[in-house]
Design goal:
Elements lengths: L1 E2 L3 E3 H8 L4 E5 L7 E2 L2 E4 L17 E4 L4 H12 L9 E4 L6 H10 L2 E5 L5 H19 L13 H12 L2 E5 L5 E4 L8 H7 L6 H10 L1 H7 L4 E3 L10 E8 L9 E9 L9 H21 L3 H9 L9 H8 L4 E11 L9 H15 L4 E5 L2 E6 L5 H19 L3 E11 L3 H14 L9 E3 L4 H15 L6 H13 L3 H10 L4 H8 L3 H15 L6 H22 L6
Parallel strand pairs: 5-6, 6-7, 7-8, 17-18
Antiparallel strand pairs: 1-2, 2-4, 3-8, 9-10, 9-13, 11-12, 12-13, 14-16, 14-17, 15-16
Helix pairs in contact: 2-3, 5-9, 14-15, 15-20, 17-18, 17-19, 18-19
């Protein structure tokens, strides 16, 4: 399986991605070179590190890079020692550029052509998944590499062999997770899916009319879909992948679906039975990946201070090819209280990884609990980091209806400070929820007041003896008499005791507010002319408001 060491042979990686997606154009070092790491790069990322001794990722995915820039980059690559050069590059323009192929050959870099219609945000996660599969196998986590319980790619291959036809395994949003090899019988829908594109809209409408998606959500039966000759869609079988309910969540969860397209020959007689068994295996594989991250993912989480912390930072930096020192940034992302409650951070993790890698190829991303975190080592500009974070928050809201808040810890001196920076980020996210949408992206420095006040309120909330019974008496009076003295005095305090401004905000006469303030003082025994009394009452009112807002928030995601 592995070539040379813990990497995967280039030919095996390309074989798994499939000829529909990629084609090997030239391999000066042979197609058995080991690929251990991959980077998604744009033009701005091509500048090489000044230290020529620093190794580069084994594979580069060139996104929107002009021929002249790619050729210039390859010429610089050729000046480096062979052991410090990348092994392969993926490009959509490779077949059209003899100059690029010549420069790559001289540099000893394999050239892989990517289908022009393929989506990079589809190719990159698939490549990462194959590298992670190889890494787990090398580290001994998956000993039985040829069993159906290894990974989704292996499962897709075995299902294709035993059921007949071509297999694709998709997540609940119809994104392809893995697939078997294709041949000339692959139809339009399969090709578009493998390229990361949406299937023909006309056919998707037909599936909707047939109630296929509803049936996939509601049942684990194998659904037989007849061919649609007008749309050039072949005969298919499909089954949902479901995680059984348990404990306090008795309802099963849909994790995805398995699609089997008929090729030149009919399905084998046991195809439906094979699909049912495959769905159960796929559920275990996907659940295992959701519940137990890869070794690399665990190490990254420990770098962020999770899972007990404790990580050999120098070894991690060397293994992941990231700088140990230099200013870094740690960014945390959390759902806003009004974001849809069914969003899954497991999917968000891969999205963050993709966008962060496009911004900086040496970035790290992980998901811990109900939050996502990104590490940007040795950033060039604090302003650029903030601008990228704001852009990402806006983009995810517009494209995926995912409303996020973000907090940035910057600068972080070195990798040993990442865990402390995450604590700082969490302080901001914990304390600024009430300021949304005013505070979508912020830092501890910008949110110092909200953070410190929030932590003071946490202390008050955790110690009942510090909660003033006089406020309880006031709220009890409001409840028993259908009054609104609590809101009136809170507005009065927010307007710094300005009766006219507070009355205008409450839309009542100033004399009415003066009467209410006197009633508050009478009921509570608090002297609102006393600065200490005012401060204490404001804190107690803020604690009540915080408690009520937390009670209205959706449950945290696990």
């Amino acid at each position: 399986m592995a070539a040379e060491d813990s990497g995967i042979a280039l030919r095996e990686l390309l074989g798994a991605l499939g000829s529909t997606l990629v084609e090997l154009v030239d391999a000066p070092g042979g197609d058995g070179v080991a690929i251990r790491s991959v980077a998604l790069v744009e033009s701005s990322d091509l500048a090489l590190e000044q230290d020529s001794r620093s190794p580069l990722p084994d594979m580069y995915l060139h996104v929107g890079i002009a021929e002249s820039e790619a050729v210039r980059w390859l010429r610089e690559i050729a000046k480096r020692p062979s052991a410090q050069r990348p092994r392969a590059m993926l490009s959509k323009t490779a077949l059209e550029s003899p100059a690029l192929r010549r420069a790559a050959h001289r540099a000893g870099v394999a050239v892989v052509a990517v289908h022009p219609q393929a989506r990079w945000d589809h190719v990159y996660p698939l490549t990462q998944r194959m590298l992670d599969r190889s890494r787990r196998a090398w580290e001994g986590e998956d000993q039985e590499l040829l069993t159906t319980d290894t990974d989704l790619f292996g499962l897709a291959r075995i299902v294709a062999q035993n059921a007949g036809g071509m297999v694709s395994i998709e997540d609940p949003q119809s994104h392809v997770l893995a697939y078997s090899a294709s041949n000339e019988a692959a139809d339009r829908l399969r090709i578009q899916s493998i390229l990361g594109r949406e299937g023909p809209r006309e056919y998707l409408r037909v599936l909707q009319q047939w109630g296929v998606f509803d049936r996939l959500r509601q049942t684990d039966e194998v659904i037989d879909l007849p061919p649609h000759e007008d749309l050039d869609i072949k005969h298919r079988l499909v089954v949902s992948i479901r995680r059984p309910g348990e404990g306090s969540h008795p309802t099963s969860t849909v994790l995805g679906s398995i699609w089997l397209q008929e090729g030149d020959r009919p399905f084998k007689p046991a195809a439906a039975e094979v699909l049912r068994g495959a769905a159960a295996i796929a559920a275990r594989i996907i659940s295992r990946n959701l519940d137990a991250p890869s070794t690399e993912a665990l190490v990254i989480q420990r770098l962020f201070g999770a899972r007990g912390g404790g990580v050999d930072v120098p070894s991690l930096a060397s293994a992941l090819n990231i700088p140990m020192t230099g200013p870094a940034a740690v960014i945390g992302f959390a759902l806003t209280a009004d974001s849809p409650g069914n969003q899954q951070y497991s999917a968000l993790g891969s999205t963050m990884r993709l966008h962060a890698s496009a911004f900086r190829r040496d970035s790290l991303a992980t998901v811990i609990g109900d939050r996502a975190y990104v590490l940007l080592p040795r950033y060039q500009s604090a302003r650029a980091v903030t601008a990228w974070t704001r852009q990402l928050v806006e983009q995810l809201e517009s494209t995926r209806s995912l409303r996020l808040r973000a907090a940035i810890a910057i600068p972080v001196a070195d990798l040993t400070e990442v865990a402390r920076a995450r604590v700082e980020v969490d302080r901001v996210l914990d304390s600024t929820a009430a300021t949304y949408p005013r505070g979508r992206v912020t830092t501890l420095a910008e949110s110092r007041t909200a953070v410190l006040l929030g932590e003071i309120l946490d202390l008050l909330g955790a110690r009942p003896e510090l909660q003033d019974p006089r406020l309880t008496a006031l709220l009890g009076y409001d409840r028993d008499h259908s009054a609104d003295l609590g809101a009136s005095v809170e507005t009065y305090l927010h307007r710094h005791g300005d009766v006219r401004a507070a009355a205008e905000a409450l839309r009542i006469h100033p004399n009415t507010l003066r009467y209410r303030i006197r009633r508050v003082e009478h009921i509570t025994g608090i002297d609102l002319a006393d600065p200490a009394d005012r401060l204490l009452l404001e804190l107690q009112l803020a604690l009540r408001r915080r408690t009520e807002s937390h009670a209205d928030e959706p449950a945290h995601l696990g």
